[in-house]
Task: structure prediction
Amino acid sequence: MLAITKSMALKGLEGYIVSIQVDLSNGLPDFQIVGLPDTSVKEAKERVKTAIRNSGIEFLSRRIIVNLSPANTRKEGSMFDLPIAIGILIANKDIRNPNLRENFDGNHFYRRIIFKWEYRKNQRDFTSLH
Result:
């Protein structure tokens, strides 16, 4: 199952849209983030898994591939935690309400999560991207 969420990143002072594509498939349990993530983005795997588990949702033992597009630009920071988590929940059908799923379409997420599935304001918090 494929789910796509959106976020944003900075290149210098310019913001650009990042498409977070989450694919869940059968196979050996694995969690990979591709698309030039830096170390803090790669560490999102543990933050996202822990936050989902602590929210009362069983974290899946499946193959998870997260692609951050465009792939030719380095992504850094923890602002991709929330869109990755939302993508996993949508792909696994943990978000079942079609109206709620439609509300995610077109929105851009760029917040960190902590282990209790809460938001924390990012140092570089953006109100909009135009």
Q: What stands out?
A: The two ends are 30 Å apart (CA to CA).
